[in-house]
Amino acid sequence: LTRAVTNVICSLCFNSSYRRGDPEFEVMLRYSQGIVDTVAKDSLVDIFPWLQIFPNADLRLLKECVSVRDKLLQKQYDEHKADYSDHVQRDLLDALLRAKRSAENNNTAEISAESVGLSDDHLLMTVGDIFGAGVETTTTVLKWAVTYLIHHPQVQSCIQEELDSKVGVDRSPQLSDRGSLPYLEATIREVLRIRPVAPLLIPHVALSDTSIGDFTVRKGSRVIINLWSLHHDEKEWKNPELFDPGRFLDSEGTGLIIPSSSYLPFGAGVRVCLGEALAKMELFLFLSWIFQRFTL
Question: Which of 15, 38, 113, 228 could form a disulfide with 62 if both were Cys (CB 3.0 to 4.6 A apart)?
């Protein structure tokens, strides 16, 4: 699953895909996993940055993985700059290069590519962020989906019956089938509810003094959303610990609904996850293809 999702992101960013065993692909997988493994650990360095001056195996591994990542990204960036054409936009990196050149052509004393976040470093880190946020998260949701469906064979059977009825066996599911496969969509929503990929979302900072209910929030305050609590609140969800895709279907079982405003798997507002649409498409295609072909 990790390899498949990584290839999707590679196609999006670099217009390239890799076969199993490709040396560059294997390096990419190793550094990605190394970053995830080290960042996921609790570390005093996160609280007291000055501790990084002391020997730290995890921090050393993280720096090594980031260095390898940066070299691979730089290689792709240099190749794209050499082959760039204003008449062809192959992938995200081409789109970023076009935006950078446009900013440079319209450069003024007040506005430059650097000031609008389109320097070489900005472009490289944008692609790096997409890898960091787009591979591990989607892979984790897929793993949770497979786990829950293995333990709930009746849900798996309903998905397969829906696929057999609406898609058949003579072709593979396509994104255009999403509207006719509500039970599969409801299952994806339930996986995102019961096992949110980011239980505390991403830390934010209040930009101005405000309030939430009776609580005052001062400018500069750290704001953390307990998404796990929202998705398991008994006041909002009936039997929240029960895996039940039906909670996202109407009474007839043919239409999708959002039964609670406390459903925020990708966050909300202007800081909502930019990869929401891509993640939903990936989850649909991977799961529909898997369960059209296999019973787990």
Answer: 38
